[in-house]
Amino acid sequence: MHGDLKILTGSSNPELAKAICNHLGCQLTPAVCETFSDGEIRIEIGANVRGDDVFVVQSTCAPVNYNLMQLCLMLDALKRASVGRVTAVVPYYGYARQDRKVVPRAPISAKVVADFLTTAGMHRLVTVDLHAGQIQGFFNTPVDNLYAAPVILDYLRDIQGDIVMVSPDAGGVERARAFAKRLNAGLAIIDKRRDQPNQAQAMHVIGDVKGKVAVVVDDMIDTAGTMVAAARVLMENGAKEVMACATHPVLSGPAIERLNNSAFSKVLVTDTVPLGDKLEHCDKITVLSIASLLARSIHNIHTESSVSVLFV
């Protein structure tokens, strides 16, 4: 076993870090995370961490580059303070959608971020619902890619009515199928295609949603365009009610306005990304906490117990 357990946090998601500490029965280790007048970041660890087992909680959400740089500087500060082991707990891994080259002369940004974290001094990564599971292969260190599904499923089990899980595109079928299997529910898929160039994208529902509670499931909601379009076509195909659930509420650009004007009765998300005042502008959003899931993973890693038990 490594040294004492310590939890640090940057400025991206301190409330989640505090909730994790509450589950673990410990206090946050103090750290200074400030910005100089010229925009540079100042980091200072406020306690002795020599030989300790330290976990840094920091989502690389908006402002992405600031939070990523802050995390790298915290990792470097810990390394220079002779930490025993440092694990980066990154509930939302920014740049995850840039995991391959889709055009010539483009970077693989998710790989660059992995190199940043490793070079800065990270020994292990804990994250939640990576956009592409293959990103784990970008690291030469252990990666624990946890799933928020158990937290969301606990909520969905209390819903009254006949549920059908819906994938908003072909790429998310495996995720929707896993939810449907756990809930003993039906499965439907939204098929999007353009029959001819310059024509509007047609959306078709594969599966029976008539008279049912359709739950659209995805790993994240960014601008909400795909989700809202899926809700509309599901209602047109006779769904009794349409809900959405996603792990990461990125909610950039017109997302809040789109959700407010959508057919969704409820939008379930987790606290991997802090919503701040966005919650005040959309009463359809319900936030479920993954603090207990992350706390259990931290405890198991610290005690050298199995993390795989969290996937059952």
From TrEMBL:
Keyword list, A-Z: ATP-binding, Cytoplasm, Kinase, Magnesium, Metal-binding, Nucleotide biosynthesis, Nucleotide-binding, Transferase
Annotated Mg(2+) binding sites: 131, 169
SUPFAM superfamilies reported in the protein's UniProt record: PRTase-like (SSF53271)
Active-site residues, as the UniProt record annotates them: 192
Subcellular location(s) of the protein: Cytoplasm
Binding site for D-ribose 5-phosphate: 194, 218, 222-226
UniProt cross-references to InterPro entries, sorted A to Z: PRib_PP_synth_CS (IPR000842), Pribosyltran_N (IPR029099), PRTase-like (IPR029057), PRTase_dom (IPR000836), Rib-P_diPkinase (IPR005946), Rib-P_diPkinase_bac (IPR037515)
E.C. number(s) listed in UniProt: 2.7.6.1
Cofactor(s), names only, from the UniProt record: Mg(2+)
Any GO CC annotation of this UniProt entry: cytoplasm
PROSITE patterns xrefs: PRPP_SYNTHASE
A Pfam family hit: Pribosyl_synth
The Ribose-phosphate pyrophosphokinase N-terminal domain, residue ranges: 5-121
GO biological process, one term: ribonucleoside monophosphate biosynthetic process
Pathway named in the protein's UniProt entry: Metabolic intermediate biosynthesis; 5-phospho-alpha-D-ribose 1-diphosphate biosynthesis; 5-phospho-alpha-D-ribose 1-diphosphate from D-ribose 5-phosphate (route I): step 1/1
Task of the protein: Involved in the biosynthesis of the central metabolite phospho-alpha-D-ribosyl-1-pyrophosphate (PRPP) via the transfer of pyrophosphoryl group from ATP to 1-hydroxyl of ribose-5-phosphate (Rib-5-P).
Subunit-structure text: Homohexamer.
Protein name listed in UniProt: Ribose-phosphate pyrophosphokinase
UniProt source species: Desulfovibrio psychrotolerans
Gene designation: prsA
